[in-house]
Write a structure and sequence with these properties.
Layout lengths: L1 H14 L3 H7 L3 H6 L2 H13 L1 H11 L7 H16 L4 H14 L6 H13 L1 H9 L2 H5 L3 H10 L4 H8 L6 E4 L6 H9 L5 E3 L6 E4 L16 E3 L2 H10 L6 E4 L6 H9 L5 E6 L2 H14 L4 E4 L14 E7 L14 H4 L4 H17 L2 E11 L8 H10 L3 E4 L11 E2 L4 E3 L10 E8 L1
Parallel strand pairs: 5-6, 5-8, 6-7, 8-9
Antiparallel strand pairs: 1-3, 1-4, 2-3, 9-13, 10-13, 11-12, 12-13
Helix pairs in contact: 1-2, 1-4, 1-6, 4-6, 5-6, 5-9, 6-7, 7-8, 11-12, 14-15
Length: 434
């Protein structure tokens, strides 16, 4: 388990790979023999969640001596187990020693054993100077802490705390085929329990996450896995029967499915994504949901060859962004994202907004969405758009009838990552053109 986790951690921290890519590359025969896949995944994700705290602890244990990236990643995984798992201490230490051999570092196995036992003896003294540092104490990069404090001076600590928790497994129930309560009873028949999200009529949060194959009706499209905050997009856009609807950055297809379920009848949905491989994920989702959409692989910024020239009634633009609102679900973002990425995303968001507004009919509705918490990607993008395009107007979110626990921003609304609200972080702004 620890060897596979160390391979994943090293690929993220030292090669800049995403967690999913790194985890897939670490999935060799040896890793599969080492421990169940879910256990390997949980350890790697947990260690990445606390990496910015655990890495300086490794340095404090052996300043300048752990030069191998494999050993450093292994010690980070082992310290995570000692601090955050329920495994017996002796089991965690011996597993780390065995993992050193599996990683081809047999001569360092004794050092791994000695360092971990020293940590157990001197834990408080080793941790004290590390936890005195803002980055290590919060397990968030300093640049992001500063931005969060600037954007949310009253809520940044809540955000940090939420980011350091495990995300819920939230389901979206297809209300055209069942009711939320009926599906909850169906779960109970299999000794599975879930709680309704008060502010989302389609959302259920499982008390204990489980593989999707074990969800009754999942393969038949009765339910999907989607964060409650993400489920808001369909209700805020409010597609109506007979309308032409564009899902502008659609992969992997969760919001496309939600739009088709939310309409009170058939809509003509076009789902576009820049990545042809990810368009296939949309197709798989459509087949599972027993739904239909026109699927297009194209870069909206440069390619309109797919468009027939007829304007859309409603457009969902779930724009690429820094993903700083979904860090608890994707802890590798803490290591991969850089402050210089933000203006690049903002420029892309503005180009996509300009393009999509050109495809929207007069009086139609465009919902701009990101899973970012940063104002540079959210209200400032909208502010710049409104100042340069007098035809564009805001549609107040409160007029759309939703009752989510969001914060009003100067323009649009912001959901924060929250264990109480059972939501990740999302920004929404609704626009129309005259």
């Amino acid at each position: 388990m620890l060897a596979g986790a160390a391979r994943t951690i090293a690929a993220v921290a030292f090669e800049g790979r995403s967690f999913e890519d790194a985890f897939a590359r670490a999935e060799g025969d040896a890793a599969r023999r080492e421990a169940p896949r879910a256990a390997r995944r949980a350890v790697a994700l947990g260690a990445l969640r606390w990496y910015l705290q655990l890495e300086p602890l490794v340095e404090g244990l052996a300043p300048g001596k752990v030069r191998s990236r494999w050993l450093r990643a292994l010690l980070i995984a082992a310290l995570h187990q000692l601090e955050y798992s329920r495994n017996p201490i002796e089991t965690s230490v011996s597993s780390a020693v065995d993992a050193a051999r599996l990683l081809g570092q047999a001569r360092a196995a004794g050092m791994v054993n000695a360092l971990l036992r020293r940590y157990l003896r001197e834990r408080d003294a080793i941790r004290a100077p590390v936890l005195a540092q803002r980055q290590a104490a919060s397990a968030h990069p300093l640049w992001l802490l500063d931005r969060l404090q600037q954007c949310f001076p009253l809520h940044w600590q809540q955000i940090v705390e939420a980011n350091n928790t495990h995300p819920p497994m939230t389901l979206r129930v297809d209300l055209t085929r069942t009711t939320r309560e009926a599906y909850r009873k169906r779960l109970q028949q299999r000794d599975l329990s879930a709680q309704a999200v008060a502010w989302s009529p389609t959302a259920l949060v499982l008390d204990t996450p489980l593989p999707v194959a074990q969800l009754p009706g999942f393969e038949d499209g009765l339910v999907s896995v989607q964060d409650a905050g993400a489920q808001l997009a369909a209700s805020l856009l409010g597609p109506r029967a007979g309308e032409r609807v564009l899902d502008a950055c659609a992969a992997p297809g969760g919001k496309s499915g939600a739009l088709l379920e939310a309409a009170a009848g058939a809509i003509e949905l076009t789902a576009v994504d820049i990545d042809a491989a990810r368009v296939e994920l949309i197709a798989q989702n459509m087949r599972r949901l027993r739904r239909h959409a026109r699927l297009v692989g194209a870069d909206l910024r440069t390619d309109l060859s797919w468009w027939d020239g007829v304007a859309f009634d409603r457009i969902l633009l779930d724009a690429p962004c820094s993903s700083t609102g979904v860090i608890r679900r994707h802890p590798d973002i803490r290591l991969l994202r850089r402050p210089e990425d933000v203006p690049v995303f903002a420029a892309t968001q503005r180009r996509l907004l300009d393009r999509c507004l050109g495809l929207l009919r007069s009086g139609g509705r465009l919902l701009y969405s990101t899973c970012s918490l940063l104002s540079d990607e959210n209200e400032r993008v909208i502010e710049a758009l409104l100042s340069s395009n007098p035809r564009v107007r805001m549609v107040p979110i409160d007029d759309l009838g939703a009752a989510a626990p969001w914060l009003a921003r100067p323009l649009g609304v912001q959901l924060l990552p929250s264990t109480a609200a059972q939501s990740d972080g999302f920004y929404y702004a609704c626009l129309t053109v005259t």
